[in-house]
Design a protein that fits this description.
Aldehyde Dehydrogenase, Chain A, domain 2; globular; binds 1,4-dihydronicotinamide adenine dinucleotide; binds magnesium ion; six-stranded mixed beta sheet; alpha/beta; single chain
């Protein structure tokens, strides 16, 4: 882990902490988060711990809740919404009768309650997934037929796209137009893409000499636990299910407590597509109970998680109980570097998309902008001007809205706390920092941010960007890398040599040259350092869901 050290004279360098200090910092219990204090030279003066906010709503008992509800969404759409846990292709009540409330951040009103899984429900789901994994209806289904099921699922998602988009908009506040054009399109494409891969997963033959035949089989890992966040509810479900199903695994997927509805609705479509019972099980539930039970369950072979680095660490620890295979995608503080030869107008537009889309609730958002000194003022003026016009804040069900509320009141409060921190530590607020309505944060831009400022180090996860100035290419690379994260990065320059050299030097899982955040389901997605382990999307994700088995065939070595 690295932290920033600022030397006198404005030259920055990274300083590694000793292994002992790292261990001390990482040895947080699950309720505390370290806050680092810097002295005037930028070296760490002290570390304190504040209570880490838990954004989940707590569950309550309500065993008379029906298994379906007739809902009417704010756009008038009538939806038959499943409320139960989806296990063995059926919606069932939680054993304890516990439920959680799905709330919309648009006005903090309750949408409905859904059943919330407890450890005993996870147990039932694991048994269903294990039986399905062993049942010939799934284990002996040909890869091409698995692909056909995924194609059918993609078609059904397409058919129900208005409902699924409406559910995500209602549940987490993302503009409906964005949900349809981006989340739904990406989810459908992801299912189709992995449908195509199902019959193309092959092993190798390895020539070790004439007396032996060696080949590998790429076999499914088994029962997979998948824990997803709230920022792209349906899309994260598709990213997780696609490669796991294409390779023949069975699944227990837990949605985020802030956004359980679209995953449950998808459960119906999974059954309709023809997946055998128990292949996909979908649980609503809280992280600390249901999520923790999945991460530590000895009947689960693999865990795939997307969410905070903080929770990622807890999951890794819990998953060590039976050495689960792990894929983790966590947070970021991704830099966007603009050199003085760049097309500034394009840099402005991409930088806006890179941080303001989804109200900044994007793991790979380019939330730090580093600008070369000659174009620093020009970039900031144009960026502020463009951002104040391009972000249309409003009711996410309105056609024109591009910027909805933060996912929850607590998440909103967290972003606003960073506005205060930014001001207090001496960065200059040049746009926003205000709240036009409950749970909404206006696009917020800070300039003259220094590397040791909290807003340059911690993931804000809001429409909030920290801009600072650099002189040389070497300085830009060093400062881009001065973070404990390594998810995405963007570079703007017309010099192709520089573009590729800088891209190679940046410590990140993904680098965009002259764009930002235009990811694609066919391209590997994931991070280095504390941004994660493994890759989602593309062919690379298949490796996360298969084990290579080596078969040795003796062709004549006689003893
Ligand atoms: P979180 O990481 O706590 O939640 C993500 C998922 O993990 C949810 O399904 C949650 O129920 C589950 N979870 C929570 N605690 C768990 C545990 N002990 N064991 C197993 N599962 C557990 O994130 P949260 O609280 O929703 O947001 C906090 C911050 O995390 C955000 O401000 C943002 O910085 C970051 N985040 C990053 C995301 C990404 O895409 N990488 C997505 C969501 C949040
Ligand atoms: Mg909600």
């Amino acid at each position: 882990m690295r932290f920033i050290s600022q030397l006198r004279g404005g030259v920055k360098r990274c300083q590694s902490l000793s292994a002992r200090s790292q261990t001390k910092l990482l040895a947080q219990n699950t309720r505390q988060k370290p806050i680092l204090h810097f002295n005037s030279q930028g070296t760490i003066k002290s570390t304190t711990h504040i209570h880490y906010r838990n954004f989940s709503s707590s569950s309550h008992r309500m065993s008379d809740l029906p298994l379906f509800a007739e809902l009417t969404a704010p756009n008038g759409l009538k939806i038959k919404q499943p409320l139960g846990l989806f296990i063995n292709n059926e919606f069932v009540k939680s054993v304890s009768g516990r439920t959680l409330t799905s709330v919309t951040p648009i006005n903090d009103k309750e949408i409905t309650n859904v059943y919330a899984a407890q450890p005993e429900d996870v147990d039932i789901a694991v048994k269903a997934a294990r039986a399905a994994f062993e049942d010939p209806s799934w284990s002996e289904l040909s890869p091409a037929d698995r692909g056909q099921l995924l194609y059918k699922l993609a078609d059904l998602v397409d058919k129900h796209r208005d409902t699924l988009a409406t559910l995500d908009t209602w549940d987490m506040g993302k503009p409906l137009s964005v949900c349809k054009e981006e989340d739904l399109a990406e989810s459908i494409n992801t299912f189709r893409y992995y449908a195509g891969w199902a019959d193309k997963v092959t092993g190798k033959t390895i020539d070790v000499g004439p007396s032996k035949l060696v080949y590998t089989r790429h076999e499914p890992i088994g029962v997979c636990g998948q824990i997803i966040p709230w920022n792209y509810p349906l899309m994260m479900t598709a990213w997780k299910l696609g490669p796991a199903l294409a390779t023949g695994n069975t699944i227990i997927l837990k949605s985020a407590e802030q956004s359980p509805l679209s995953a449950l609705y998808l459960g119906q479509l999974i059954k309709e597509a023809g997946f055998p019972p128990g292949v996909v099980n979908i649980l609503s539930g809280e992280g600390k109970t249901c999520g923790a039970a999945i991460a530590s369950h000895e009947g689960i072979d693999k865990i795939a998680f997307t969410g905070s680095t903080f929770t990622g660490r807890a999951i890794m620890k819990a998953a060590s109980v039976n050495l689960k295979n792990i894929t983790i995608e966590t947070g970021g503080k991704s830099p966007l570097v603009i050199f003085d030869d760049a097309d500034i107008e394009q840099a402005v537009k991409w930088a806006h998309i890179g941080i303001m889309s989804n109200s900044g609730q994007v793991c790979c958002a380019t939330s730090r902008i580093l600008v070369q000194e000659n174009v620093y003022d020009a970039f900031i003026n144009q960026f502020v001007d463009f951002t104040s016009k391009a972000s249309v804040i409003g009711d996410p069900f309105n056609e024109d809205t591009s910027h909805g509320p933060q996912v929850s009141k607590l998440q909103y409060e967290r972003v606003m706390e960073y506005v205060e921190k930014g001001k207090k530590e001496g960065a200059k607020l040049v746009l926003g920092g205000t709240s036009p309505n409950a749970n909404f944060v206006s696009p917020t831009v800070f300039k003259d941010v220094e590397d040791h400022h909290t807003i340059s180090q911690e993931e804000v996860f809001g429409p909030f960007v920290a801009i600072s100035k650099f002189k040389t290419q070497e300085e830009a690379i060093k400062r881009a890398n001065c973070t404990s994260y390594g998810l995405g990065a963007a570079v703007f320059t017309k010099d192709i040599t520089r573009a590729h050299k800088v891209a190679a030097k940046i410590e990140a899982g993904m680098v965009w040259i002259n764009s930002s955040n235009d990811s694609h389901y066919a391209v590997p997605f994931g991070g280095v350092k504390q941004s994660g382990i493994g890759r989602e999307c593309g062919e690379y994700a298949l490796a996360n869901y298969t084990n290579a088995k080596a078969i040795h065939v003796n062709l004549g070595t006689m003893l």
